[in-house]
Amino acid sequence: MRFAPDAAPDDHRSDARSRPRTLTHVFAHRSGEWDLRVEPRVVGILNLTPDSFYDGGRYGTPETALAYAERMVEAGADAIDIGGQSTRPGGTPVPPEEEWRRIEASLSLLAARVVIPLSIDTYHAEVARRALDAGVSIVNDVSGLEVDPSIADAAARAGAGLVVMHSLGAPADLHAPREYEDVAREIRDSLAERMSLAQSRGVSRERIALDPGIGFSKRADQSIEALRGIGRLLELERPIYVGLSRKSFLGALTGAPPQGRLAAGLGAAAAAYALGARVFRTHDVRETVECVRVARALFAPAPAGAAAVGSAAASVASEPPAGSASVGVAP
């Protein structure tokens, strides 16, 4: 995704429930670094699984995987996140050997042909190590180092970027809702601990991004609170990475099945941008690129002489409607 060269960096954003935060600028990985002041990033999803909740089984051969990856590159993706383990609600985890078997041939072809960074979506250190040896630049761990902390060792040795996501529980019940006293605070505190763990294992701070784990270990209403609380995560001074497209909380809000949640996901992405998220993992690359481009234009700092008007508009836009705190969403 590329913005106009004269686009102003967006160093500050406000959250309705917190004072203004300074956005973290850089996410580093094996292929370089992303300066998120000027450009948010869009990561396309490539599931090489037979049972993914949205696109399972579509890209089961190296040739179909490559063709889809090339379409995502053309649509403006900044990276492609490859997964061989479905983390859909009700899914059955597979062992590392099967996970690697699903992705090995396609990953080898993509590493040779795709011109943007590749990411591996796994919580198994063995799979991460093999994928890093094959050339991926980013490790995306949906367990947040809970399943296998040595995945951080693999990322550190390779100089890879590491996405640490908030979730609770064993792989078989990552989606099982938990009870929280304060969703945003507990996510922040948990991710702070996991970030410290990653650093203790050698992952440098600039190579860590944080994901609030929308839909993981959370009911729909808790996922909404997690999104509203992105400002709390910015206190950790790392980029915020979100996966929103086609998620079940969108279905709870709209009543639509996964195939009908595009518009809802784009609305959520625009809101997440306004709250401070800067990396967007999505099934819908072209649409998300356009959505984030518009959000970037709307929420960038106002031109000189219009700061007061722009700030007032941003404040109004970010305030929840009166009485919204009491409005719940069915689990």
What does this molecule look like?
The chain is of the alpha/beta class and 331 residues long. The chain has a single domain, classed as Dihydropteroate synthase-like (TIM Barrel, Alpha-Beta Barrel). The protein has 11 helices and 12 strands. It has an 8-stranded parallel β-sheet. Strands 1-2 form a two-stranded antiparallel ribbon. The radius of gyration is 19 Å and the shape is globular. The two termini are 35 Å apart. The C terminus is likely disordered.
SSE layout and pairing:
Layout lengths: L11 E4 L2 E5 L3 E4 L2 E4 L5 E7 L14 H14 L3 E5 L12 H18 L4 E4 L3 H10 L3 E4 L9 H8 L2 E5 L17 H18 L7 E4 L8 H9 L1 H4 L7 E3 L4 H7 L7 H14 L3 E4 L2 H15 L7 H12 L13
Parallel strand pairs: 5-6, 5-12, 6-7, 7-8, 8-9, 9-10, 11-12
Antiparallel strand pairs: 1-2, 3-4
Q: Which architecture per CATH? A: Alpha-Beta Barrel
* CATH fold node name: TIM Barrel
What Rg, in angstroms, do the CA atoms define? 19 Å
| Beta-strand content bin | 15-25%
Strand order of the largest sheet: 10-9-8-7-6-5-12-11
Integer average pLDDT: 86
In N-to-C order, the SSE pattern is EEEEEHEHEHEHEHEHHEHHEHH
Considering DSSP H and I runs of 4 or more, what fraction of the residues is helical?
Answer: 25-40%
Put simply, the count of helices is 11
For the largest beta-sheet, the strand count, sense and barrel status come to: 8 strands, parallel
Question: Which descriptor suits the 3D outline?
Answer: globular
